[in-house]
Amino acid sequence: MEAFGKPGLPPTWATSDKDRVGTALGTSRLWFTLGHGILNEVFWPSVGRPQIRDLGFIVAREGFWREVKREARYRILEEDPASPLVEVVHEGEGYRLHLAFVPDPGRDALLVGFRLEGEGFYLYPLLAPHLGGSGWGNTAWVEEGALLAMKGEEALALLGPFVRGSAGYVGFSDGWQDFAKNGAMTWTFPRAEDGNVALMGEVGEAEGTLALAFASTPEGAKTLAKSALAEGLEGVRARVRRLWKEAQAGLDLEGPDPELQALARRSFLILKAHEDRTYPGALVASLSVPWGNTQDDLGGYHLVWTRDAVEAAFALLALGRLEEVGRVLAYLAATQEGDGHWAQNFFPDGRPYWQGVQLDEAAFPVLLAAALKERGGLPEGAVRAMVRRAAGFLAREGPVSPQDRWEENPGLSPFTLAATVAALAAATLYGFLEGAEGEYALSLADCWNARMEEWTYVEGTPLDLAHATRGHYVRLCPPGPLGLRGRVEVRNREGVSLEPAALVGLEFLELVRLGLRSPDDARVLDSLRLADALLRVETPTGFFYHRYPEDGYGEHEDGRPFDGGGKGRAWPLLTGERGMAAFLRGEDSLPYLRSMAGGTGRGGLIPEQVWDAEPIPERNLFPGKPTGSAQPLLWAHAEYLKLYLAWREGKAPPERLERVAARYLGGGGKPRVRHFRREVPLGTLAPGEGLLVEEREPFVLHLGVDGWQRVRDVASEPLPFGLHGVLLDLEGAESLEFTLYYPGRRRWAGRDYQVKRA
């Protein structure tokens, strides 16, 4: 009898609500995730390539069956928070199922030890292959003692003491449907071809070991699985312990609070478990697909975002792991685009996925290189050239970013500007740029830093009046001539737009963290007061922060998953950012650490978002606990580690560069030249300041003074990084009037500009 229902229901991934993620280190190229007490996505041969949806379990006896994932009555037992070795114990009516998950360090295989207790019960593993990164196009079949699947040149084998098996199409002839319709395993379909397929086997023993392995051929996968089984669960487990103990050499995370210490150790595991081995230094944002059980997204979060990867590398830097930070920089040097920026995100092998551009993603690698050089650990090689290219990109394309850090809107954001200014300054102050390039980059950083409040700070708004603040930093100032008087479209909320003054966020905290503004700056304090009033949400597990008002990235009000629209929920990583600001002011950061720990999931992992409304138990949504967004989030664990170490050791955050902070907090960095660009025109010039009119192509400046008197034309000259400019001063005049002509395009700028004496 042939399996029916081809090609099956549309595939989805597993829930992103993970209990654990792990890998064996060694030479193995396998990463695994656990969720709801079972095996979820397994990644092979890189952290960017999920190959199964899940491996679940049905326990059954005559007249009774349960799928343990749906029962969700389980405990997680960890040997060490900083080790991937865990056991899960499921308990139900008359049965107890023990599961141990052990990745093989030397083979692309994972062992699953099992012990089923209960009179008359049998175990039925359920495997959903998603080979090639998708549930479509898979072929599954059954051999003696083995469940197999293949798609193209990717294959898997699940071996164990199976007495029979079945291959079917999801939603029609799969094993779960068999139990749902017949109350027992009655189907034994030998094969299901070219569809969204599933496998099920009946285990003939109450205790034993399963082996899941991956290779380019089914024969290779079977060989790896048989080899792992031959070595045995305990032998493999001993090697995993040894490798992770070696990885923890020199790791000091001792602290006075056991819960916070355990989360710090677990955060170290997360950082290590998200790095690829074929492409060392590639750190993906999360081994999960947000709301994955509702979609078949090829990318999910198992992609490299430069920002997230560098945030994690800074946490490694705070731990003193200089060699690992060097790997990240070497990887970034290899994946940088020719013009100096990085793709919005990309697969571990460097292939771009999304196509957006964010200036902060070009700035952060520069900051990391400078920080590593400050500590004497900068590797030789292409890093200097990488920094020069990135600085050139920032100089050419700034200060307006095509996307903010949330990848939503173009404009001028304090977060992005802070990273850009600090990176341009650091490139010179730490010797990556020299001569004319270094002088130009530092001049540009000084100018943009001095204009920060002009672009991103408002005063006397209705929000300020309502909360007794004088003014506040906005999350984003839109591009264009209206600037802070314009409007910003809220992504994921169709038809919703807000004035910039209403866009309250925590982006300005990066100014403090990077040493561009004092934590006691009155503007910072007013902005903190407003953010605490509008963005902070109290939950039973702690307090967390929204990204900004009217955010649409999160579950709907009724708990339905995000589907392109919804309501943004609270973010633990923002609690970490707010906690670092408190630390830098000399306040107690312990409440922020406790909140981040309180918002973890069942397995102690920090999610991207926590639920901030009334509980919806049927959707597994509870106040202060993870939503269906990414869990774990690499960036959130990095933020926790940095705050934990700052709290324990009293040291500044690793992103803060001493030379940059000394320049801008020490009273230096006053601009001697104002850089005029048409996207951010300048209105006034202080005495003694020069005016550099600059463009990204050659131009002629048509120029006059004091109301277009003494008109003349001045051809631009080359500037560093492929820019072109004309340097002017007021020469005793009260104003300069000018426009630009582009000979290469035979076109005028179409607008006159005026700069007055301040």
UniProtKB/TrEMBL annotation:
Keyword terms of this UniProt record: Glycosidase, Hydrolase
Q: Quote the InterPro entries the UniProt record gives.
A: 6-hairpin_glycosidase_sf (IPR008928), 6hp_glycosidase-like_sf (IPR012341), Gal_mutarotase_sf_dom (IPR011013), GH-type_carb-bd (IPR014718), GH15-like (IPR011613), Glucoamylase_active_site (IPR046966), Glucodextranase_N (IPR015220)
Q: Coiled-coil intervals in this record?
A: none
Recorded hits in SUPFAM superfamilies, A to Z, give:
Galactose mutarotase-like, Six-hairpin glycosidases
Asked if Hydrolase is a keyword of the record, the answer is yes
According to the entry, every stretch annotated as the Glucodextranase N-terminal domain falls at 3-246
What is the superkingdom listed in this entry's lineage?
Bacteria
**MF (Gene Ontology):** carbohydrate binding; glycosyltransferase activity; hydrolase activity, hydrolyzing O-glycosyl compounds
Domain GH15-like stretches: 266-643
An example GO BP is:
carbohydrate metabolic process
What Pfam family does this protein match (any one)? Answer: Glyco_hydro_15
Q: Matching PROSITE patterns, A to Z? A: GLUCOAMYLASE (PS00820)
Q: Which family does it belong to?
A: Belongs to the glycosyl hydrolase 15 family.
Q: Which PANTHER family match?
A: GLUCAN 1,4-ALPHA-GLUCOSIDASE (PTHR31616:SF0), TREHALASE (PTHR31616)
Q: What is this protein called?
A: Glucan 1,4-alpha-glucosidase
Source species of the chain: Thermus scotoductus
